[in-house]
Amino acid sequence: MHTGPRVTWEQSESSSRRETDEPARAATAYLAWPLACFELIRGTHSSLWYRAHLRQAAALGALCTLAFFLALALPLGLVLALGGPGDGPTIAIYAAAMPLDLIVLGVAAWASVRCALRASRGELFSLPLATWLGERLFRRRNA
């Protein structure tokens, strides 16, 4: 670090480090969305690009989790709607629902990894529902 007149225009070591690790941290947020929620709640000073990705990653993670839980609950709802059929039909319903669960899991994993790779390259992109939901849930209120 330099001293003297040049100090006023040079970036500090911490600010240059933050700029280089934001894409990696944004990529991690897509893979582990509770971390994005924690970062948003903590309210650290970061770039607009990073905060936009945090909002989008938190919303995408919540939507994927909701879709996965709905897919997992679908056979239970069907069994309850049928009035609790015998063991054979119940097993058949759950066996038929397993491929759906795997498809939902695969799509959610693919979307998260794809977004993480794009964020790690420093791209700014928009996901229609996740971006809209993230903006509504996590925007800062001006006092």
Q: Tally the helices: what do you get?
A: 5
Strand pairing plus helix content: what structural class?
mainly alpha
Shape: elongated
Largest sheet: none
Instruction: Please give the number of β-strands.
Output: 0
> How far from one another are the termini?
38 Å
Q: What's the gyration radius in Å?
A: 21 Å
Domain unit count: 1
Model regions low in confidence, pLDDT < 50 over at least 5 residues:
1-18
Mean pLDDT value: 80
Order of helices and strands: HHHHH
Residue share in β-strands? under 5%
How much helical structure, as a percent, in the residues? over 70%
Which helices and strands, and how do they pair?
Blueprint: H1 13-31, H2 33-42, H3 48-81, H4 87-120, H5 128-138
Provide structural commentary.
The protein is elongated and about 60 Å long. Helix 1 (13-31) crosses helix 2 (33-42), helix 3 (48-81) runs antiparallel to helix 4 (87-120) and helix 3 (48-81) packs across helix 5 (128-138). It has one domain. The protein is built from five helices and no strands. The longest helix is centred in the middle third of the chain and has 34 residues, at 48-81. By secondary structure, it is mainly α. 76% of the residues lie in helices and 0% in strands. The protein has helices spanning 13-31, 33-42, 48-81, 87-120, 128-138.
